[in-house]
Amino acid sequence: KLLEKFVGGVELQNKMFTDNPDKIANDLLKKATQKKRANEIDAAILCLKKAYLEIAKTQVDYSVEVFLRLPLYLQAAKKNTEAWNEFENLLQNGYPNQNISEETKPMIDAVIYDKMRLFLQRNNQFIEAVSYGVYSILLRHYGLFLQKRFSELSDLNKKVLIKEKIEPILKKAARLDLVDKVSDLIINKTNSFPQMPNFNEIQNFIN
């Protein structure tokens, strides 16, 4: 009986480990990477979607980069509309177990907007990408402002550093003539916090 109890306990422990959603999710994420490397992109996408379902069963706050893999894979599969919808869904609805505090959300959104910029650049939509790159910078600045990291914000909100960030984006768009104008926009909007411009305002300014 003692042996039966021991064996039963081991089996239960193994089952608990096997059924652990966090482990299943991580295994699926690894499998998605393997499938993508093998050019099995549809299988990789399916693995990601299954992983997200398992993550939703946990209380683990995965980074936004985990969920940004899906639009990246969808773009690789030439499913651009579906990929863009995933970006929009992350911005509007977030992802499982996301920390949605006022101080952290702008930082997360900044990462999403920057990935949207890269998405557009890969599609040769270089002009459209500029607005997303600029808004990503502003969101990061806004996050620092909300977190009261004023010294760090002050260091970043310098024209020489901002120009370093936006020049490559504007160069791809063949609009280096806008470097000073866009740099001043970012500096002025940052200095106007806590008033945060909406994306359409930035888009209209760039275009």
For this entry, give a set of tags:
207 residues; mainly alpha
Summarize the structure.
The protein has 11 helices and no strands. It has 207 residues and is mainly α.
Describe the structure.
Helix content is 76%, strand content 0%. It is mainly α. The longest helix has 21 residues, at 126-146. It is globular. The relative contact order is 0.08. Residues 5-17 have low confidence and may be disordered.
Shape field = globular
Q: Span between N and C termini?
A: 77 Å
- Class computed from helices, strands and strand pairing: mainly alpha
Q: Pick out the low-confidence regions.
A: 5-17
Query: Average pLDDT across residues?
Result: 91
- Write the element-wise H/E pattern from the N-terminal end onward: HHHHHHHHHHH
Strand tally: 0
Multimerization status: single chain
State the helix count.
11
Major pleated sheet: none
Helix content: over 70%
What is the rounded Rg?
Answer: 22 Å
Strand content: under 5%
Fold blueprint:
Blueprint lengths: L1 H17 L2 H17 L3 H15 L8 H13 L3 H14 L11 H18 L3 H21 L3 H7 L2 H14 L6 H13 L7 H8 L1
